[in-house]
Design goal:
Oligomer: single chain
Strand content: 5-15%
CATH class: Alpha Beta
Structural class: mainly alpha
Largest sheet: 3 strands, parallel
Distance between the termini: 26 Å
Number of helices: 5
Helix content: 40-55%
Order of helices and strands: EHHEHHEH
CATH topology: Rossmann fold
Strand order of the largest sheet: 1-2-3
Shape: globular
Number of domains: 1
Length: about 110
């Protein structure tokens, strides 16, 4: 089974709109994408704020169907806090890549945790 990768809201939105930069799409090849409950909530918020019509809402729902949705739990909040603090102490800007675009993924097995 392919390793999982968590897409942040900005990357998920770009992918849905088919505007994902090719260099980023290439990095995602071979991974099973997932999103968090926060990304799902933000995508729904944007849908309502922008008054999407039924066809576009249905397209988003269909596009999201295959994605596992990672739930919010106290453990998720704890791990995110640990990762964020560890990165900040090291001077890593968690939300941006070196190219100035949103960080696409965090691979749970690619790096050791603090």
């Amino acid at each position: 089974m392919a390793p999982a990768v968590v897409l942040d809201t900005d990357v998920a939105s770009l992918a849905f709109k088919r505007k994902l930069p090719s260099w980023l799409a290439t990095q995602l090849v071979g991974y099973r994408p997932a999103i968090t409950f926060v990304t799902l909530a933000e995508l729904n918020k944007w849908m309502h704020l922008r008054s999407w019509g039924v066809p576009r809402r249905e397209r988003l729902e269909q596009w999201l169907r295959p994605f596992p949705i990672l739930p919010g739990t106290p453990k998720v909040a704890q791990v995110w806090g640990e990762m964020s603090a560890y990165a900040q102490r090291r001077g890593v800007r968690v939300r941006r890549t070196t190219r100035g675009l949103p960080r696409a993924v965090w691979r749970s097995k690619s790096r050791s945790r603090p």
